[in-house]
Amino acid sequence: MKKLYIAKVIGNVVSTKKDDSLIGSKLMILKVVHADSSHDVIVAVDLVGSGVDDYVLVSCGSAARQTFINQKIPVDAAIVGIIDNFNEGMIKDGTGY
Q1: CA–CA separation, 31 and 77 (whole Å)
Q2: In Å, what is the CA distance from 56 to each residue of 17, 19, 33, 47, 96?
Q3: Over the range 15-26, which residues count as b (16 or more CB within 10 Å of their CB) and which as e?
Q4: For residue range 24-61, what is the model confidence (pLDDT) as tens digits?
């Protein structure tokens, strides 16, 4: 995966049993938006209080872990921003890349 994506929040995850380092973390289901119109669905830790139907910035890979004090946390995606506005047409038709 690239380091930063635009994604839409489509739901949340409830997990009563998880790694201790994830206790208290809000987990969200995201549909990642790509210029080629393919979509991936991922789970990300929400660091900014996003909600369903929000468009968000998602940091992936080792860049996601750098947002935590404990960088050994088992996280591969973290929501690091809520998008107020963006040109959706650039994503849908690929002219933004």
Answers
A1: 12
A2: 26, 25, 10, 11, 17
A3: eeeeeeeeeebe
A4: 889 999 998 865 545 589 899 998 999 999 999 998 87
- Structure-model confidence comparison of residues 73 and 94, the more confident one: 73
Q: What is the pTM of this model?
A: 0.78
Distances 72 to 21, 63, 79 between C-alpha atoms, Å: 9, 12, 17
Question: Could you tell me where the DSSP H helices lie in 11-74?
Answer: 62-65
Helices (H) and strands (E) in the chain, counts: 2, 5
Q: Nearest 5°: CA angle at 23, between 19 and 25? A: 115
